[in-house]
Design goal:
The protein has 139 residues and is mainly α. It is 80% helix and 6% strand. Strand 1 (33-36) and strand 2 (39-42) form a beta hairpin.
């Protein structure tokens, strides 16, 4: 049992620091993102390193709270922060897109949401199907 607990702690540490590093690199890359005539380019400066460190200082405690905390309010608040960072990171590059192309982009995003929601719905149905079969065999 102690070995399982040690493995769980190691896995939780990998999850926390891996996700923290991922989100930090994501935010640093958004800081380095620049628009050019031919599209996008990355311009790594000292501000990119500052963004990486500040992002790590914000998201690492959030992921620690999400993984380790028993307080539901704290977990929910940390999860909201992480989700807002993710959504903001997704939409941030749209500031470089010309207005006349926004309609096509939002149509594509809408179709992507519908497609992913459909796939998610099917996955939930499959999960309920398999859980329903296992519930009947237990009783």
């Amino acid at each position: 049992m102690a070995e399982e607990s040690k493995n769980d702690r190691l896995l939780n540490r990998i999850i926390v620091y891996g996700l923290s590093l991922s989100f930090s690199v994501l935010l640093a890359s958004l800081e380095a993102l620049r628009a050019t005539n031919s599209g996008f380019t990355f311009e790594v400066t000292w501000r990119t390193l500052v963004a990486l460190v500040l992002a790590a200082a914000v998201v690492a405690p959030c992921f620690q709270i999400i993984v380790y905390s028993q307080n539901k309010r704290a977990r929910r608040a940390a999860l909201i922060v992480v989700v807002l960072i993710g959504i903001g990171s997704f939409f941030y590059p749209l500031r470089f897109v010309p207005r006349e192309k926004m309609g096509a982009i939002f149509i594509g995003l809408g179709l992507a949401v519908v497609a992913l929601s459909t796939v998610g719905g099917f996955l939930l149905l499959v999960r309920r199907f398999f859980e329903g079969g296992s519930d009947k065999s237990r009783t």
